[in-house]
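Lab channel / #folding
Pinned by the channel admin:
"Please post every new chain as: sequence first, then the structure tokens as a reply. Keep commentary short and put observations after the output so the thread stays searchable."

First post following the new format, from NK:
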Amino acid sequence: MVVVAIVGIVAAIAIGLYSNIEVRARVAKARADTRTLASALVMYMGHCGAYPPAGAEAQGGQCNGSGLTAVTAPQLNIAGQTMGPFLNGVPAPPWGWTPYTAGYVVNANGTFGVTTSGDGTVATAP
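Reply from TO:
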């Protein structure tokens, strides 16, 4: 009986630790993805001179596209230089987290943010 009790206690501890590991892995993925998206947006800005607009409206002309999907296509800047794609695709967020596209904003002062949330945590970059 003592052995059964000990095995039960060890199993309860292991299940708790495993659950915590899954949450930590989802948080780590979300943080890594937001940093990757931020890096792609900075490269896009360096080439195009502005961040892609956050809404559905396209810039038109040079460096077209909108939202985070703009970094997944080659872009032609005003100097006639083509560069990109800056990212192969917008990553899928961890299970149960908000999409990265919903958390992309371009601020009036020329900065941007990529945010997602889930598991009681918010991951933001930069």
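NK: The radius of gyration is 21 Å.
TO: also worth noting, The CA atoms of residues 49 and 82 lie 13 Å apart.
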